[in-house]
Design a protein that fits this description.
alpha+beta, Beta-Lactamase, 5-stranded antiparallel sheet
Length: about 170
C-alpha cells in the first residue's frame, strides 16, 4: 500500500548514466523483485518493497491518466514506455524513462510485469513536466471519478495534433 504520510520535497536524485532500475511485480502490481539501484533510489529496504504495491513510489505530480494508459497497455499484453516522476521514502524525487513489459505464464496469460528504468534526457523531463502539469490541472477540475479519463483525453488530443501515437511520441523525446 502506498504510504500517504510522505510529503514530497524539492530534493531531486539524479540517476547515473549507467544505472538501470529493475523491478518485477505480480499481475496485481505487488513488488516481487527490486535490484540494488531500485532500493537505493526508492530509499526503502528490500523488505519494505517486497509485497508492496508498486505505487509505493508514486509521486503526486504524476497524473492518473498516465497510469491508466500504462496499465491498459500492459494488461493488453503490450510493452509501454513512459517518463515517470517517482518519489522516494524521504520525499525526494527522481525521474526515469521506464520500459514496462508483461510477463507471460505457460498458458499465455499475464502473470506479472518487468520494469526497467534508466536516466531520462533533460529535455524530455522538461517537456513531460509541462504535459503532466496540464494533465493534473484537468484531473483536479474533473474530480476523482473522471480524472484519469479526462487527462488521458487531453493526452490523446495532444498526440492527434502531433499525428503521433503515444509510443512514437515517447520514443521521439
Amino acid at each position: 500500500m502506498k504510504n500517504r504520510n510522505i510529503n514530497p520535497t524539492s530534493m531531486e536524485k539524479i540517476m547515473r548514466e549507467d544505472d538501470f532500475i529493475v523491478s518485477k511485480t505480480d499481475a496485481k502490481g505487488r513488488i516481487a523483485y527490486g535490484n540494488r539501484v531500485f532500493i537505493e533510489f526508492s530509499g526503502y529496504t528490500e523488505a519494505e518493497l517486497l509485497g508492496s504495491q508498486h505505487n509505493i513510489i508514486r509521486h503526486p505530480d504524476m497524473p492518473r491518466g498516465v497510469f491508466k494508459l500504462l496499465w491498459d497497455t500492459i494488461q493488453a499484453g503490450n510493452e509501454c514506455n513512459a517518463y515517470v516522476k517517482n518519489m522516494a521514502k524521504d520525499g525526494s524525487f527522481y525521474w526515469v524513462y521506464a520500459n514496462v513489459t508483461p510477463d507471460f505464464g505457460q498458458d499465455g496469460q499475464v502473470v506479472g510485469y518487468t520494469s526497467v528504468r534508466r536516466k531520462p534526457g533533460a529535455g524530455a523531463v522538461e517537456l513531460m513536466t509541462g504535459v503532466y502539469r496540464t494533465m493534473l490541472e484537468i484531473e483536479n477540475k474533473a474530480g476523482p471519478k473522471d480524472a484519469p479519463f479526462a487527462s488521458l483525453e487531453y493526452l490523446t488530443d495532444l498526440l492527434a495534433k502531433k499525428r503521433m501515437s503515444y509510443a512514437e511520441f515517447v520514443c521521439s523525446l
